[in-house]
Amino acid sequence: MDLVHHTPLEAAHLALGAKLVSFGGWDMPIAYESGTIAEHRACRTDAVVFDVSHLGTVRLSGEEAFDTLQRTLSNDLNRIQPGRAQYTHLLNEQGGVVDDIIVWWVGEDRFDVMPNASNTTSARAALGGTDVTKERVVLALQGPLARTKVATFAPDAASVGRFCVREFSYKGTTVVAAGTGYTGEDGIEVAVPIDVAEDFFAEVLKAGIIPAGLGARDTLRLEAGLPLHGHELSPTISPLQAKLNWVIGWNKPTFIGRAALEAEKAAGVSRSLVGIVTEGRQPPREGSSIEHDGVTVGLVTSGNFSPMLETGIAMGFLDASSELAAGDEVQVVVRGRALSGRLVSLPFWPPKDR
Length: 354
Description:
By secondary structure, the protein is an alpha+beta fold. Helix content is about 20%, strand content about 35%. The protein folds into 3 domains: about 5-55 and about 135-225, 2-Layer Sandwich (Gyrase A, domain 2), CATH 3.30.1360.120; about 60-130 and about 240-265, Aminomethyltransferase beta-barrel domains (Alpha-Beta Plaits, 2-Layer Sandwich), CATH 3.30.70.1400; about 270-345, Aminomethyltransferase beta-barrel domains (Elongation Factor Tu (Ef-tu), domain 3, Beta Barrel). The strands form 4 sheets. The protein has a 6-stranded mixed beta sheet. A 6-stranded antiparallel beta barrel has the order 15-18-17-16-19-20. A hairpin with a 2-residue loop joins strand 11 (about 165-170) and strand 12.
């Protein structure tokens, strides 16, 4: 029995020269023949398409859907309305992040909840609903020219507002578009039913949108200072430690993990997420220690080479007791070698003077 999931567009990716890797239980493109750095830069300057069908979709419908999401997830749906999307967290009772999630409020009583690939089962266990992941392909169309190019074949998708959600017709089939992404660039994500997915993907490529893999998606989100579950977020890391207080609906009477977050807020966090820029092209790596004057003060959770800044960048957690701040010098110890660096405010890109 094949326990690995496959995107319905796998044959198309292989024909484009994609290298597939296992990610969250799915075989997904990590890069194409052009390579991760070229794909990354294309997203910053032009337009790329990511197949992110490995993300889950759990659909909640009916009169109880709103109340279920409100009492379970951290953010407050009263901040938005139908036709909008919202970033939120599923927490445990200790205030840790079981998963970070995007909710697409598609219709009055319909919500498409999008967890990370490996957390779909956990999300459904907490929320109920129907797993419709295998019924659609999700494509992320990102970059400063993405909307212009998408408008040539799907103008309704191209005009969806930032963090807005819209249904539109493509070849007589209903497709959902959302003004969301995970790159730091403008763009949209579309959930395309499988029966028209290959045709839609072909039109994306015909419009001059460049295929990009999950390698570029990771370096893009790192430059944009966006957290990745399992790195900057986890069941032992709270949204307060990750500096995501805005994801918490403090005005709601209840949600899972609220009491723990209230206690942490009152006591003060023990660690906080920081950005680090290192000297030279050698990238910091996950698990590297952050040191100051020979004393370990934190740990790197994500690190890589920045294709736009052309230097090493990292995110990690700094002990609150260190009292260090943006601009202070630190060292990142990678395999016994200390890289000189400095703390910076996130995101890394775009640069503050851009």
